[in-house]
Amino acid sequence: MIGLLKRDLSLAIRAGGGFGLSLAFFLIFTALVPFGVGPETGRLSEMAAGLLWLGALLACLLSLDRIFQLDWEDGTLDLLATSPLPLESVAALKALAHWLTTGLPLVAAAPVLGILLNLPGAAYPWLIASLFVGTPALSIIGAFGAALTVGIKRGGLLLSLLVLPLYVPTLLFGALAATRGAQGLDATTPLVLTAGITLGAAALLPFAAAAALRVNLR
Amino acid sequence: MTLRVSDLACARGPAQVLASVSFSVEAGEALILRGPNGAGKTTLLRTLAGLTPPITGTIMHEEDAIAYAGHADGLKAQLSVTENLTFWASIFGTDDITPALTAFDLHPLADRRAGELSAGQKRRLSLARLLVTGRPIWCLDEPTVSLDAENTARFATAVEAHLAQGGSALIATHIDLGLSNARTLDITPFIAKGLPASDPFADDPFVGALS
Questions:
Q1: A167/A188 Cα distance (integer angstroms)
Q2: What is the pLDDT of residues B66-117, one digit of tens each?
Q3: Taking the CB of residue B54, how many other CB atoms lie within 10 A of it?
Q4: Angle value at C-alpha A68, between A65 and A72, nearest 5 degrees
Q5: B51 and A11 in contact by Cβ < 8 A?
Q6: Which pTM value belongs to this model?
Q7: What is the pLDDT of residues A5-23, one digit of tens each?
Q8: DSSP string covering A21-88, please?
Q9: Mutate which of A4, A7, A72 to test chain B, going by most B C-beta atoms within 10 A?
C-alpha cells in the first residue's frame, strides 16, 4: 500500500509528472483577478476569500484526469486490479497522493496569494483551516469522477463537467468559513460542515470509484 | 495448484465470444492457447484473471493465485528498471527482485529509466514482473511479442523454472516455446459463432439498476 503511494508521489515530482502545474495555475488565476475586477483594495479584500477558494478548486480540477488515465493507458491499472490490493484502497491511495501533490501545496500557497488580494488579517487562519479540511474532498470527489471517465479518450472535459457540480457543497461551506473569518465572525459551523463533507466523501467515494473502475476495466 | 474451468462463457463488451470452455491445468503444467486472431484468447485470459466477469460457468483456483500479463507492459517510463520491479514487489508483498533481474538479464539495465528501453527490453522487464508477484498461475497474453530468439529462450527457461517449482502457466502464443510439460488447447471449437449478442445493455450498470 505504501508502495503505491510512494510511487505516485515520486511520479508526480519527476519530469512530466505535472507537479507544480496546479500551483502555477493558482498563482496566475490570483494574479489575473485584479485585472478583471479592478485594483481597488476594498473591493478585492471583500471578495478575496471566495476567490482564493474558487482558484484552489479550479487548480485542483486541472490535474484530476491524471489520477487513473495514465495508469489505464500503460496497462498498470489492469495489473493493479489483479494484484492483492483491493481497488477500493487503490482509489483511496490515489486520491491521497493527488491531495498530497496538489491540494496540500495549494493550502500552503493560499496565504501568500492572500496578500496579493489584500485578504483581511483575521481571515488567514480560517482560510488555511477551511482549505486544509476542504481540499481532500476535492481530491476524493475528483478521483471518483476520474474513475468514471477512465478509458475515454480526451475525457478531461467530461470529467470537469461531471465533477464541478459535485464540488458545490465543498466550495459553499469552505468559502463561507473563510468569508465569515474575513468579516471577523465565528466560522466554526461552516468549517465543521466542510470537514463533514470530506469525511463523508472519504468514507463512501472510494467504493464508488472502485465500482466504476471495475466496470471500465471489463 | 490446480486451475479448473468448466462450462465457461466469456464476453467482450456486449458480445459473447466463447461458449462452454472447459479445461484444467495441473501444477507443473503449461497450457498453450491457440486460435486465430479474434478467437477470444485475450478475453479468456482476462476472464480468468478476474478483470471481466464470466457470463456463465465456473473458474476454480485458490484465492490470489493468478498473475496476469497482457499486451500492455504496465511500466512507468519515468521510473528505473529497479524502481518498477520494486514497486510491484511491494504491491505483491515480496521483497527480493534479484532473481527476476537475473532471469531476464536485466542487471546491466537496472538503473536505466524504463522510458529509455527498447520494445524488447520493456517486454523483458514486464515479464520479470511475473517473478516478483510470487503467484503460482501465470496467465500470459502473447508474452514473446518483440522478443528476439535469445530472449524468447530466456523466457522459456523462466517458465520451465516456474513449472518445476510447482507453478502453472496459461500462455496465448503463436510460436513454439519448446516447453517440456506443455499441452496445447485450440480454442477454435469454443468460439460462440452465430450466438446473438444477447442484450447489448446487459452489462450496463445503469440500465441494470433501473430494471
A1: 20
A2: 889 988 888 888 888 999 989 999 988 888 888 888 888 888 888 888 888 8
A3: 19
A4: 120
A5: no
A6: 0.89
A7: 888 888 888 877 678 888 9
A8: HHHHHHHHHHHHHHHHH-S-HHHHHHHHHHHHHHHHHHHHHHTTTHHHHHHHHTTHHHHHHTSSS-HH
A9: A7
Contact A218 B53 (CB under 8 A): yes
As given in the structure block, the three cell numbers for residue B156 are 522459456
Cβ separation B71–A75 shorter than 8 A: yes
Task: Give the distance from CA A118 to its chain's centroid.
Answer: 24
Residues 6+ apart with CB under 8 A from A174: A53, A130, A131, A133, A134, A190, A194
Task: Write the CB contacts of A14 (distance below 8 Å, at least 6 apart in sequence).
Answer: B78
* Backbone angles phi and psi of B62, in degrees to 5: -65, 160
Write out the DSSP string of A85-126.
Answer: S-HHHHHHHHHHHHIIIIIHHHHHHHHHHHHHTT--TTHHHH
Minimum-distance CB partner of A4 among B73, B91, B203: B91
The upper half-sphere exposure of residue B162, i.e. CA atoms within 13 Å in the direction of its Cβ, equals 32
- Interface touch A78/B70, C-beta < 8 Å: yes
ipTM: 0.85
Q: Which residues of A touch B79 (CB under 8 A)?
A: 7, 10-11
CA atoms within 13 A on the CB side of B44: 33
Cβ atoms of B78 and A15 within 8 Å: the answer is yes
Residue with cell 529509455: B116
CB contact under 8 A, A74 and B73: yes
Measure B74 CA to nearest chain A CA, in Å.
4
**Side-by-side strand order, sheet with B3-12:** B15-25, B3-12, B56-60
Q: Are A179 and A185 in contact, with CB atoms under 8 Å apart?
A: no
Task: Name beta bridge partners: B56.
Answer: B9
Closest partner residue to B91 (CB to CB) among A3, A16, A75 is: A3
Of the partner residues A15, A74, A211, the one whose CB lies closest to the CB of residue B75: A74
Query: Is B52 in contact with A215 (Cβ distance < 8 A)?
Result: no
What is the sign, positive or negative, of the torsion defined by CA atoms of B172, A70, A3, A208?
negative
Give CA B116 to chain center in angstroms.
25
* CA–CA gap between residue A63 and residue A101 (Å, rounded): 10
